[in-house]
Amino acid sequence: EVQKLNQQLEEKNGEIQQMINQPPYEKEREILRLQKTLAEKEKAQATSDVLCRSLTDETHQLQRKLASTAEMCQHLAKCLEEKQRKEKGNSDDQIPTERSNQLLDNEPSLQALICNLQDENRMLKQKVAHV
Predict the structure, then answer these.
(1) How many CB atoms lie within 10 A of CB 62?
(2) pTM
């Protein structure tokens, strides 16, 4: 290990000596090349930072939307359960009222809304997993 490190040190010293022995214009050319490389790496790092921030913001936004959608789904499920309980109570009496007829008329739209929200919820989960 020590020999390996000594060999690497000798190689670096050789490179340094080679740079020292180069004419001044070669040194300047090497300095310019290194500065250009550094600028490119800094630009790449800045771009990466912006993309990371953007993805982080989008992830948080999707998580909030997912939580909101899940909350809405839970609310709609509770409403549907209450409606079904009321319908059972009304069907036991065998006297349908205007209210139960309205609920029956709205049931397909509620189910469609629930399906849409579930689809949106699934898509948001996929997006969050992808991000």
Answers:
(1) 19
(2) 0.43
Per residue in 67-113, pLDDT tens?
998 899 898 889 888 888 888 876 655 444 454 455 445 566 777 77
First-residue to last-residue Cα distance in the chain = 43
Token pair belonging to 66: 């997912």
- What's the CA gap between 95 and 28, in Å, rounded? 97
**Structure-block tokens of residue 113:** 């809304």
Distance CA 49, CA 112 (A): 42
Interval 110-131: pLDDT, tens? 777 788 888 888 888 787 777 6
**Quick one: angle between helices 98-130 and 24-93, nearest 10?**
160
Tokens of 51: 């993309």
